[in-house]
Amino acid sequence: MAIRCSQFIFKDKAGLYSEKAGMENAVLAAAASSSSAAVAPPVSVPRPVLTQEDLKRIAAYKAVDFVESGMVVGLGTGSTACHAVARIAELLRLGKLKNVVGIPTSKKTEEQALALGLPLSDLVAYPSVDVAIDGADEVDPWFNLIKGRGGSLYREKMVESRCGRFVVIVDESKLVKKLGEGGHAMPVEVVPFGWNVTLEKLQSLFKSSGCVAQLRTGSDGKPFLTDNLNYIVNLFFKNGIEDIHSASDAIKRVVGVVEHGMFIDMTTTLIVAGTDGVTLKNKSDLCLHKDA
Ligand SMILES: O=C[C@H](O)[C@H](O)[C@H](O)COP(=O)(O)O
């Protein structure tokens, strides 16, 4: 299913066709459902230029279609997921959704949701989550993910491993052939005690593939602290992660590791917003990447 950008252009109140009006309607069309009853645009109108932020919002609004009244919803973290949180809060405010309880995956999301008046709870009260919506740093052709470059991987994995449907929302820049390709970080949350020993061990696990491990630091040079007051070790793989399943097993066996940022076999639905439209695929479809 694809919504082409040209469908996003509508007349504004003054009868003019504008990019802004187009974007507003794109968002509404994406939020409305797959059966977007878009008005056919005039052929002469140029396609709107969608920013990465627009794409994130479109994907997020589309994902909120999966949220129904009475559901327990996992609220993801990051610049994409925050659009979904805002949309859920808006629908609650408008009375289009009722009795939704959100389980936030980070303190930041918790703050956002509270500010928007979205009712929150936790996994103690609700150990089963109906649907979770979250962004990702990388998505491979089998919908496996790297998450946690914002540092929220542990709480995200906790909540998202408890949900019936896990909807991942990304713009097309997040699609990769192999996780870790391009030399970007695969984060691992570790306990601060003896972090240097844990870091050395992690690096040595992938020595043959030229992996480099680095402690994540903030702008002040101090170790970055997660919401759980742990550290993050970033693993950089020269040519991506060869075998994510065995890498996952090996990392989890290291003493001092809390969790890693590979989310393997967890995604049930992937929504990708690109300049050509929005694509929604379920895990069973599996053929999103042209070159896969
Ligand atoms: O720790 C951060 C989370 O895993 C985010 O969901 C992930 O980094 C994607 O974030 P964004 O949507 O901002 O690119």
TrEMBL record:
<dbReference type="GO" id="GO:0004751">
    <property type="term" value="F:ribose-5-phosphate isomerase activity"/>
</dbReference>
<protein>
    <recommendedName>
        <fullName>ribose-5-phosphate isomerase</fullName>
        <ecNumber>5.3.1.6</ecNumber>
    </recommendedName>
</protein>
<dbReference type="GO" id="GO:0009052">
    <property type="term" value="P:pentose-phosphate shunt, non-oxidative branch"/>
</dbReference>
<dbReference type="InterPro" id="IPR050262">
    <property type="entry name" value="Ribose-5P_isomerase"/>
</dbReference>
<dbReference type="InterPro" id="IPR020672">
    <property type="entry name" value="Ribose5P_isomerase_typA_subgr"/>
</dbReference>
<dbReference type="InterPro" id="IPR037171">
    <property type="entry name" value="NagB/RpiA_transferase-like"/>
</dbReference>
<dbReference type="InterPro" id="IPR004788">
    <property type="entry name" value="Ribose5P_isomerase_type_A"/>
</dbReference>
<comment type="pathway">
    <text>Carbohydrate degradation; pentose phosphate pathway; D-ribose 5-phosphate from D-ribulose 5-phosphate (non-oxidative stage): step 1/1.</text>
</comment>
<dbReference type="Pfam" id="PF06026">
    <property type="entry name" value="Rib_5-P_isom_A"/>
</dbReference>
<keyword id="KW-0413">Isomerase</keyword>
<comment type="similarity">
    <text>Belongs to the ribose 5-phosphate isomerase family.</text>
</comment>
